[in-house]
């Protein structure tokens, strides 16, 4: 009779971090400084989204000086020499790799987490492709950009149309000859449409209700104005839009060519074809809502509101700054188009840039609402020992971004340490 093998006991750590992006590794930096044993589980390679899911001409849309991961600010510890520039994709990866090397976090790469669940005796079980683990506390930092969104109606399009998600777009040469339709006017959609347009390709762009932002106003980068005014420090609980701000699409603008605005009206004058919100597919025809005019107007309203915020700050502080003329729309649609015949317009490819959804299926924890969204306050959930990192507006505009993700991690650290202290006291009793 063959003796039955007893499986090895799961490896135990005080804190398990799911996700090796900027959020998970910012948390790791703080835990390492505090001497807390932990592991970071990353299903691919650390910062894989920055390495593998960005197009060739991709660059930051915020100035380099806002890259301030904990212990590794761009101009200080990293020694970057272009704080007001916008790093290209390869430069971003170099910065992130240098960050990894700066503190050597305990990461298991190529390790997919398939289940996180509470254990009967306390703590959490973590099932992974590298084996089973247990932890006293868990930080979920796997991000909200896991599952690319492509509408089911896209399945009804002809196989002759090349379709890809924005995360798989690399450059204009990747697409077949002919016109391209880009669906989505967030940062990715607008920048990809511009990338194709500047390469001389014929571009059709379906725009939603994404807002836009000025780049430079009254002699200064708008990011600098909003930072000095304290706007970026407003917590979502005090924001005029309250919790709904978490649902808002990012403003579109670009760091390309040294940083500039994206004005879709100007691109329309140059030949880019604009449409309203995508609705459906009807044979070889795409249907749109008759809201192009409204969407352009709302984007401009956001643009002008940001200008007003800057004006008000300048006035309060008595700052001498050049005055600029009000924005005047260079183009307006005669009608709101409601359909697009792909064959008639020689459209050979479609880039879907309508975002991602989160995938928390592995987290078998009672910390989600009816829509599957995390229930938390600044990353702290109602379940002791469970935290989130990297969420949009987890606290402020900079949450989850290079700008302030380190502050989010620093906020969680005292709660983690307090629970750790209480657990040790119980064990010693």
Automatic annotation (TrEMBL):
GO terms for molecular function: flavin adenine dinucleotide binding; monooxygenase activity. Keywords: Oxidoreductase. InterPro entries: Auxin_biosynth/cation_transpt, CHP04046_FMN-dependent, FAD/NAD-bd_sf. It comes from the Bacteria. Gene3D superfamilies: FAD/NAD(P)-binding domain. The keyword Nucleotide-binding does not apply. PANTHER family: FLAVIN-BINDING MONOOXYGENASE-LIKE PROTEIN (AFU_ORTHOLOGUE AFUA_4G09220), FLAVIN-CONTAINING MONOOXYGENASE. This is FAD dependent oxidoreductase. It comes from Hydrocarboniphaga effusa AP103.
